[in-house]
Amino acid sequence: MIKACIFDLDGVIVDTARYHFIAWRRLANELGFDFTEKENEQIKGVSRTESLNLILRWGGVEKTEAEKTELAARKNDWYVDLVCNMTPSEILEGVVAFLDGLRAKGIKIALGSASKNSMTILRQVGLVEYFDVVIDGTKTTRSKPDPEVFLLGAQALGLPPSDCIVFEDAEKGIEAALTGGFHAVGIGEPEALPAAKFVIPGFAGITFEEIVARL
Ligand code: BG6
Ligand code: MG
To answer: Whole-prediction pTM value?
Structure first.
């Protein structure tokens, strides 16, 4: 019996995954290298610090801890500039209707995101009041694919993972959900999320009941 839905934020509720890509790529370019959208799939869902470590490895660049702190802050400043201009029009198609449907049925709604900018983004697009629980990067110590973020969400909801569906656009996020014992639904292209039992392109034209029937 599904009693809650836990949503990743970037790439599931809003299209900020592309803003992360733009800002990380700008940083890599300043350091004299580039990375591809395919490589980018590997850092989706991953914390800021771990993303930077992976990107530096791709570029074959070594930095001290102090330099890494400065680089992560530089990327975040660019990212925050992008998200501070967001409007509710950047909420992905079908999300608001889906959330309204959950509300009407009494299904709990939680956020499970690695981003420390989650609250800024939710406020910016006017979605804060939908969420019964918000677990974000300010509350976690381990990055996806560790299931911590979702387990904290289930705990705060007072539910076992088996009563919750996790919606994720990242391979590492699907892995985190499955490791934690959650139902996991992929958002995006099936080829990018091979571990997900099923993948939907987004929330447009699909109901909670149709998703539950396919679990
Ligand atoms: C995740 C994104 O939601 O949050 C990652 O998918 C990002 O790309 C991570 O690195 C951390 O986000 P932030 O906003 O704290 O740098
Ligand atoms: Mg995501």
So the answer is: 0.95
* Domain edges within the chain: 4-14+89-214, 17-83
Six-digit token string for 95: 């999300």
Atom 5, ligand 1: residue with shortest CA distance: 45
Residues 72 and 27: their CA atoms lie apart, in Å, by 9
153 CA distance to ligand 1 centroid (A)?
Answer: 17
pLDDT of residue 197: 87
CATH superfamily of 17-83: Putative phosphatase; domain 2 (1.10.150.240)
Question: Is 8 noted as a catalytic residue in this protein?
Answer: yes
CA geometry: angle 50, 143, 11, nearest 5 deg: 90
Please tell me the CATH code under which domain 4-14+89-214 is placed. Answer: 3.40.50.1000
Confidence at residue 93, expressed as pLDDT on a 0 to 100 scale: 97
Active site residue 34: no
